[in-house]
Design brief:
Number of helices of chain B: 5
Largest sheet of chain B: 5 strands, antiparallel
CATH architecture of the largest domain in chain B: Orthogonal Bundle
CATH topology of the largest domain in chain A: Nucleotidyltransferase, domain 5
Number of domains of chain B: 2
Number of strands of chain A: 12
Number of helices of chain A: 9
Structural class of chain A: alpha/beta
CATH class of the largest domain in chain B: Mainly Alpha
Oligomer: heterodimer
Strand content of chain B: 15-25%
Chain lengths: 327, 206
């Protein structure tokens, strides 16, 4: 079975084609174009959606060419219907609807966050993990129970990705800033005490953000180092709490921040202590990409018909714990 | 000394204190944490936990007795409560005990204490009595917002770990809570819980 997945929730416009045989999936192509704001600035929804519109046809044709298939070979098309930025979401939805109505291909709206998790499971082989989803849009600890992903812990305010990006922009980096912060952090080992806020399995980052900004006026390297140490220790503690509470024997990290080496190292140590297997999504597929959407659409197609065109919605606020999973 | 549980932040050992059965709770060094942050957290929580365990007894909250505190290895020697965590009981029992849990949390809040880590694993049923444990994240606070954070956490736990019985147990919990703090404070706190939830990522904004 061949699926096309379209991702356009935020910075990235991406199309991917996956061939599904039984429980296995093979990524035939995954093409991306990423909108880059100016240094020191964040994503501008209108500019990002314009970028997606301008790049959409090229990304789609490259993706088909690379997979060496024609549109008519596709069995389904899926698109990220939320959560994300409205103007950006609409671009992907329009492309998907056009293909679906013109070529009569069944269409599937997919939750972007579930896409991260499902592709992670496919690529890492995790079977029943506690999932840490850390990206610009999410900071959540999840486990699957009774046909739904349940939230065992999350941020009470901003996400880990936002924390890094907002701080990074304040010292002049362009989003996403995680990599730049990690590089600066590696130059320091001087820990400055910062607010550490863990509330049960939940975390809160807004106080940490303000405090780190004021440390940065004295020394940027120390600020980056201390920010990483504090924020990642908070996440690790929340993970430890959730692992001990759910008694899961697998941990999987997915999402853009999964690329950070210091965070992985800390979580590896957590897993060792709890005798738990550690999975991290391959770097190439940590950030947003069409494969996430495509694979989830293919899984849904096992149990559901595509939706009618009038029901191909986009929703900016679509929590993943409200999605029923039947496959 | 026998290791009985590797918890999230401490290891629990079953041991003896003079002639009584006891639990030794040691907050071990976490290598992944920066050493100065790590020792600050371990010391602070050991002190906080031992203080609060004793303090809330005077309000009528059943907790283990603290026998000895050692700040050098951040450990607490305390009475063993040989019961079962509410988390592991049958669903009908959890629904029933939710009312007691609500009452206990009500008493804590009424006396200006926030537990900070309300999960069904931190209530232990022993001989018809529900004990409260694990006060490492507790705070002395009369701020309604802090009390609401407590309620939101237990709600999140019921909604995830006990999804099938969420509605009935949450209802019982709230009834128990209301019976202690009174209807006015109850309304205020439940309103704040919704506020906190609506601040969450991608929450349904009505």
């Amino acid at each position: 079975m061949l699926g096309l997945g379209i991702e356009s929730t935020a910075h990235t416009f991406s199309c991917a084609i996956i061939e599904k045989t039984g429980k296995k999936g093979k990524i035939l192509s995954d093409v991306r174009k990423i909108y880059r704001p100016d240094e020191g600035e964040g994503i501008h929804p209108r500019e990002a959606s314009r970028h997606h519109i301008e790049n959409s046809s090229l990304v789609l044709s490259d993706c088909l060419k690379e997979a060496n298939i024609s549109i008519k070979d596709l069995d389904i098309v899926s698109y990220a219907a939320g959560p994300g930025l409205g103007p950006c979401l609409r671009v992907g939805a329009v492309v998907a609807r056009s293909l679906s109505s013109f070529y009569k291909i069944p269409i599937y709206p997919v939750n972007h966050a579930i896409g991260h998790i499902e592709l992670g499971k496919l690529l890492t082989g995790a079977t029943n993990p506690l999932v840490l989803l850390v990206s610009g849009g999410h900071t959540m600890l999840l486990a699957f129970l009774n046909k739904q992903w349940r939230v065992f812990g999350e941020t009470l305010d901003i996400t880990l990705g936002q924390l890094l990006d907002q701080f990074g922009r304040s010292i002049g980096f362009a989003s996403p800033c995680g990599k730049n912060i990690e590089e600066l952090a590696n130059l320091s080992s001087n820990y400055v005490l910062l607010p550490y806020s863990v509330k049960g399995n939940d975390v809160s980052f807004s106080g940490l953000l303000s405090a780190t900004k004021s440390v940065a006026t004295k020394n940027k390297e120390d600020a980056c180092y201390s920010l990483q140490e504090t924020a990642f220790a908070m996440i690790s503690e929340a993970v430890e709490r959730a692992l001990s509470f759910t008694r899961k024997k697998e941990l999987m990290i997915v999402g853009g921040v999964a690329a950070n080496k210091r965070l992985s190292a800390m979580l590896k140590d957590v897993c060792k202590r709890h005798g738990c297997k550690f999975f991290v999504v391959p770097l190439e597929y940590a950030g947003d990409c069409g494969s996430q959407i495509c694979w989830t659409g293919l899984l849904e197609s096992q149990v559901k018909q595509g939706v009618a065109l009038k029901d191909t919605f986009v929703t900016q606020s679509w929590r993943l714990d409200s999605v029923k999973v039947h496959y | 000394m026998k290791l009985i549980k590797k918890g999230a932040e401490a290891d629990l050992y079953q041991t003896k204190w003079h002639d009584s059965n006891a639990i030794l709770k040691i907050r071990k060094i976490k290598k992944y944490r920066n050493p100065s942050l790590d020792s600050k957290i371990r010391k602070q929580r050991t002190i906080k936990e031992s203080q609060t365990l004793s303090l809330v007894k005077s309000y009528g909250i059943p907790t283990p007795l603290v026998y000895f505190v050692n700040l050098d290895d951040t450990s607490i020697m305390m009475q063993e409560i040989p019961g079962k965590p509410v988390h592991d009981l049958s669903e009908s029992k959890i629904i029933e005990l939710s009312k007691d849990m609500g009452k206990l949390v009500g008493i804590l809040h009424k006396n200006g204490i926030m537990h900070g880590d309300l999960t069904t694993s931190n209530f232990i049923l022993f001989k018809q009595t529900v004990f409260v444990i694990d006060f490492g994240l507790s705070q002395i606070t009369i701020k309604p917002e802090d009390h609401a954070v407590d309620l939101r956490l237990i709600k999140e736990i019921l909604n995830s770990a006990h999804a099938r019985i969420m509605l009935s147990s949450w209802k019982n919990f709230l009834n128990g809570y209301k019976s202690i703090v009174g209807p006015a404070y109850y309304s205020k706190i439940t309103k704040l819980v919704s506020d906190i939830e609506s601040r969450g990522r991608y929450a349904q904004v009505v």
